[in-house]
Amino acid sequence: MTEALLAVENLTVRFPIRQGLLRRPASLRAVSEVSFALAPGEILGLVGESGSGKTTIGLCALGLAAPTSGRVLFRSQDISLLGRDAQKEFRKAVQPIFQDPYASLDPRMSIEAIIAEPLVIHGLAPTRAARRERVAALMEEVGLSPALARRLPHQLSGGQRQRVGIARALASDPVLLVADEPVSALDVSIAAQVTNLLIALQRRRHLAMILIAHDLAMVGYAADRVMVLYLGRVMESAPARQIFAAPRHPYTQALLAAIPEAEGGRLLLEGELPSPLAPPSGCVFRTRCRFAEPACAGEVPPLLARGTGRFVACRRAEDPAVRPQSAAA
Prior knowledge:
Layout: E1 6-19, E2 24-38, E3 43-47, H1 54-61, E4 69-74, E5 77-78, H2 84-93, E6 94-97, H3 111-121, H4 128-141, H5 158-170, E7 176-180, H6 188-205, E8 208-213, H7 216-222, E9 225-230, E10 233-239, H8 240-245, H9 250-257, E11 304-305, E12 311-312
Parallel strand pairs: 3-8, 3-9, 6-7, 7-8
Antiparallel strand pairs: 1-2, 1-4, 4-5, 9-10, 10-12, 11-12
């Protein structure tokens, strides 16, 4: 069995806040007891509505947010315990791709300087000539003309700026990319091109990737496995093909029903997302679930195996009324 490149163990993240007129201290639980392992060269898709904890998990995987409890292991090492040299190697090996292709680029730096920055930090190209050669190669790899190297970010289109961000992420030769909504700010046609580019780069370089998105169709197209999150908890986790062929959790079914080309007969999502400051007791999805019953409020349903590679957190997952007719054991 291949050793996990990245392992997240019982990750819980709470953010202290103050609320009300008296600014009383409170705690916002962004992520609750999330666990998964990512193999080299694997793409894991994280999907769910805003506030589901996707971005927080990504930040923890990058070492940019600290767990309240639980651990993030990279090559079997707890990233919170890494020394200075090991931390620098981790930063080199794990790179982010941000959502906003303009805000993530320094408007005062040329495209060449932006892409070359990781090369300078990690000492990967000691001379200016070597850096220029490497930047030109990276630009060509992501579909940009090296002639754009002297331009500033505002002189490029949104799609071109996102390609710059991807080239910068690749500059340090990472083994893992954390892509947080990498195409949500782009036009549909450009988003498709960038998605195809990411998949091509992932295959060519054998990169592992955490792909965070609202768009379940895009994630299903790109990812090997999909993890569905709601209010910081995992509702369902399975290979992408299983998720699309036979979603087992009512929330997953509702997300799939929202895809324009989805087949009919699946549940539509109703109601408003509860506040993460006061999530429902028991199953956090029960207040929007058509199959909820009084017992669903009693305890948090455990994430249990429901077939090969599939895990579902629903006490009625085996109920024929909930389970789609096409679902296999």
